[in-house]
Design brief:
Helix 9 crosses helix 10. The chain has 269 residues and is α/β, with parallel strands linked by helices. The chain has 12 helices and 9 strands. The strands form 2 sheets. A 6-stranded parallel beta sheet has the order 3-5-6-7-8-9. Strands 1-2-4 form a 3-stranded parallel beta sheet. Helix 4 links the parallel strand 6 and strand 7. It has a single domain, classed as Alpha-Beta Barrel (TIM Barrel), CATH 3.20.20.140. Bound molecules: fe (ii) ion. The site of fe (ii) ion (FE2) has 5 residues, from loops.
């Protein structure tokens, strides 16, 4: 624990019961929320996997159920979705057929893990034209980003916010994902960190230890932007201009060619 006690906000989690590969039953969902509360998370957005065919009504019912079951817990539970991108998604969001993050102009979207969308920039332009600013889920986990991390630099220029999994910063998704995740955390780009929790075991809703790691390297200002102020502005649908200014220089190219980077040493990898 440090003298700064952040109000952690988790914008990517699978905590609704029986709607995707998250908890199978409401009891496990509540256990996950207890873990989040104990970790210092004060606001969590439920983001079930979704696509163009998803039933928004089923998400709303599952959200209502978990909010009621968790009424004793000190945590706010909002609704969103993690939406697999296809050409019709911007229109479906504007029509209100799919959820953004808490009804904001910021939807959480994901791409296929192994195959790059034919034209990411065209897709992002379509979102821009619809008045939306997509948050791109776990950018560090895509194989094509790991091969060529520089491609993500174009995405914020098209209005996107980059989301990194806390587990990637801890090395839980492999060295390639960890390298990209730390490069983004230490960059000047609009980045948020989230748990992408799926269960109460290995992929649980915990952020605090990773916040401390980032704060040690980047300072509390940058860590606060990644875990608190930028996610908070997103769920409140506020302007994000000026949030996320870096307190350290982005990782230089020399470090990128060094197989034993500083975070490998910190994490013992
Ligand atoms: Fe997810």
């Amino acid at each position: 624990m440090t003298d700064h006690d952040p109000e952690l906000i988790d914008c990517h989690s699978h905590i609704l019961a029986s709607v995707d590969d998250g908890p199978a039953a409401i009891d496990e969902a509540i256990e996950m929320l207890r873990i989040a509360v104990d970790d210092g998370i004060r606001l969590i957005v439920a983001t079930p996997h979704a696509d163009a065919q998803s039933d928004y009504g089923a998400f709303k019912r599952a959200h209502t159920r978990v909010v009621e079951a968790a009424s004793e817990l000190r945590i706010e539970i909002m609704l969103g979705a993690e939406i697999l991108v296809s050409p019709s998604i911007p229109t479906l969001l504007v029509q209100g057929s799919l959820p953004t993050l808490n009804g904001s102009r910021f939807p959480l979207i994901e791409f296929d893990f192994s195959i790059a969308p034919p034209s990411v920039e065209t897709i992002l332009f379509d979102f821009q034209m619809a008045g939306l600013r997509p948050v791109i889920a776990h950018v560090e986990r895509y194989a094509y980003v790991q091969r060529s991390p520089a491609i993500v630099r174009e995405w914020p220029r098209r209005g996107a916010i980059l989301q990194v999994n806390a587990g990637s910063l801890r090395g839980e998704f492999g060295v390639a994902a960890m390298d990209v995740a730390w490069e983004l955390a230490t960059s000047a780009w609009p980045v948020i960190v989230a748990s992408d929790a799926h269960n109460r075991r290995q992929r649980s809703p915990r952020l605090r230890a990773t916040y401390e790691l980032v704060a040690r390297r980047c300072g509390h200002d940058r860590a606060g932007a990644l875990f608190e102020s930028l996610p908070g502005a997103i769920v409140r649908n506020e302007s994000i201009v000026g949030i996320g200014d870096p307190t350290v220089e982005p990782v230089d190219r020399g470090r990128r060619t060094n197989p034993r980077r500083w975070w490998h040493r910190v994490l013992g990898r």
